[in-house]
Amino acid sequence: VSETMSTNEENKLPLNGRRAIPPNYSNDEENEVPEMEAFGLIPRGFNPRDYLRVVDIYMFKEPHEINKQEHHTDKYYNPRLIVRRGQAFQIQIDFNRPYKPETDQFWLEFLMGRYPQQNKGTYIPIPVVNVLKPGQWGAKIIHRENNSMRLSIMSSTTCIIGKFRLYVAVLTPFGILRTRRNSATDTYILFNPWCQLDAVYLDDEKEREEYVLNDVGIVFHGNVEDVKSRSWSYGQFEENVLDACLFLMDKAELELSGRGNPIKICRVASAVINSRDDDGVIAGSWNNSYDYGVAPSAWTGSVDILLEYYSSKQPVRYGQCWVFAGVFNTFLRCLGIPARLITNYSSAHDNNANLRLDFFLDDEGKVDTRLTKDSVWNYHCWNEAWMSRPDLPVGFGGWQVVDATPQETSDGMYRCGPASVQAIKHGHVCFQFDAPFVYAEVNSDVFYTRMEKNGTQVVENIDTTRIGQLIVTKQVGGDGMMDITEEYKFREGSDEERLALETAVMYGVKKQSVQDTTYQPQTDVDMDFQSQKAVLGNDFKVTITFRNKSRNSYTATTYLSGNIVFYTGVTKSEFKKHSFSAKLEPSSSSSFDVVIKSSEYMSDLLEQASFHFFVTARINETGKILAVQKVIMLDIPTLRIKTKGELVAGKETSVIVEFTNPLKQTLENVTLRLEGPGVLRTIKKQFGRIPMNSTLTWEVRFIPMRPGLRKLIASLNSDALRHVYGELNVQIQKP
């Protein structure tokens, strides 16, 4: 701010004043700091040049220098000093003459925001001390030579996170002399999972490398019987990403003084990453039309989304759950909070948190889409962030669920978490935030209910094992899948599971008991539904098998309904109806095949290529209904990525992406994307069309930035075909 712009009012605000000041949300805004802060009238003969004066400050901020090496921040593509809190770092100050400890007095100051205040942690005076105390601010002289000195500076373990401005202050009899504002000495301070006193301390080095320092990850999708995976580029170290993440906290209007607390940061971030009610980062869209935006399946990583939002300040279109979770993971890892992306298969979206999802059947046993409001997502992605929970009783720290996908409001905003995974497992859902909602996502039961003409509801079938069948994340140090279902729930049917449920009900999770409803299932006949491998564009066969365990003959009127569904379990259209009568001989099994033709499903197919089959069978002799439902994913072809020659950092090379169109139709409006953190920035290319059976080849020339093992990730999008991915691990040599 130039002198003319700042009013007298602002100049009167003392640095550490206790007066009411406007809210302090912005890490970017600054105040004017006087180079001479006089104590009173200054005598005429006073010359600041007679006193100790700072000539230069060295921050040792290059990636290969001591600070970034010791603080594990050498990967950040950022010219400023970046350190982690609660751990010492070094700087060097050159004065105009040698320092005399007997007479000279100086100290350092870190300032943040427009209204720095000591009691808010936004004005930090750092005294020169003889001994550094762990986890407390202080500066110690470790080396003196001629006019220079080297200082070791310790920061507080509860220090706020963000970008600080550094000043050196020298005391004179008539006032305080300060260095000029110099943005080159700005210092970012981040969370420190390596420091035992930090709230995000994680004690395993392999886990820290995965959950803080790994800039690529895996998203598991598909469904329980057909787990699919794809890579995602988090890119938390790429240029400007750190600034974009700090901007998110400004956008969420999180008071600067609250930014040392990972619980607060997670809660506000889970709201600001979706655009509902606060113009946050990503606009969700689940309706298969993505005009004026990018289809959720086209994104290959978080960097493009965060940087677009940082520059435009407008929500980026469009995202679905894994996009929200991918960007949230980048945000958390970038600030130094250990984080991982979780997939819950068969995730309940229960509109009234009563631990039951109601599927209403009509007279014929078909699902009534008008009455059915709840849905089962094939999978749903959220995040876990690692931190202590001093706000909860002992034992509920560790992994916390946070979810930025807008499903339901919490305290009036679309956000969810942090909720302790341990509390969810044991049913202690009384502990903040949003534990009952997450508990229902992994523990609900599915009720098949038939409406009688007179309005009574008859429960025909209850499925207690379908929801939350499998909860997974990427394994530490590898691309495989780690099953973490046991972290969220006890074994199905165990005493502990029953106890956890009773605890959750005691703490107010609504659960209707089965006793309230008249429910006597048919126990002597089993029905099973299987499918052969289904490849996009081909016919495939499904099989319904009955096992009659009784000594009676039965006939079953069977109805199969095939629906094209969004991965959220919401139906778009019914493409297959098939009914038949099955004769069930005593003590025997009988199987019935149904062929699903590609011509029946191709025209309406949605991007995740998933079908939802409902099979209901009425045993005519008893009037009882058997029901089974199954999600089938089509196999989608992949992109092939090849490199030409060897890859050397700093030398131009090229990579080839290939794709063969397997469909019986031409692909229109084809877009390819390719990216790799530390290798190349996202490159997009549009192709008009790819005729059936023909192969597209795209060669990209680029210069790899950094040596090491890296990953290239590509995606293809078109009107008829989405969710096509390819990836390649590449070793980039040192020059």
Automatic annotation (TrEMBL):
Residues 313-406 form the Transglutaminase-like domain. Pfam families: Transglut_C (PF00927), Transglut_core (PF01841), Transglut_N (PF00868). Its main location: cytoplasm. InterPro entries: Ig-like_fold, Ig_E-set, Papain-like_cys_pep_sf, Transglutaminase, Transglutaminase-like, Transglutaminase-like_sf, Transglutaminase_animal, Transglutaminase_AS. It is found in: Cytoplasm; Secreted. The keyword Membrane does not apply. Binds 1 Ca(2+) ion per subunit. It catalyses: L-glutaminyl-[protein] + L-lysyl-[protein] = [protein]-L-lysyl-N(6)-5-L-glutamyl-[protein] + NH4(+). One of its GO terms (biological process) is blood coagulation, fibrin clot formation. Its EC number is 2.3.2.13. Its cofactor is Ca(2+). Ca(2+) binds at N443, D445, E492, E497. GO terms for cellular component: cytoplasm; extracellular region. Residues 1-26 are annotated as: Disordered. It is an enzyme of class 2 (transferase). Belongs to the transglutaminase superfamily. Transglutaminase family. Tetramer of two A chains (F13A1) and two B (F13B) chains. This is Coagulation factor XIII A chain. It comes from Irena cyanogastra (Philippine fairy-bluebird).
